[in-house]
Specification:
- The protein is mostly helical and about 55 residues long.
- The chain contains three helices and no strands.
- It has helices at about 1-10, 20-25, 40-50.
- It starts with a helix and ends in a 5-residue tail after the last helix.
Length: about 55
Amino acid sequence: MYLSESVRLMAQGKWLKEPFLSIVNGGAGDGSEAEDTRSGDEIATDIIERMGLKVV
């Protein structure tokens, strides 16, 4: 997807400004963000709530 979006933008004379790994990792590992210490369940609950999903 990153590559196809890059090609699409290049045709318009534009380009992606973020490196692929930075997008995938969300900046993790570069010292700019604190390590997430939540459990997997806490992370899943947070994502489910933010997306407005209902788990059945």
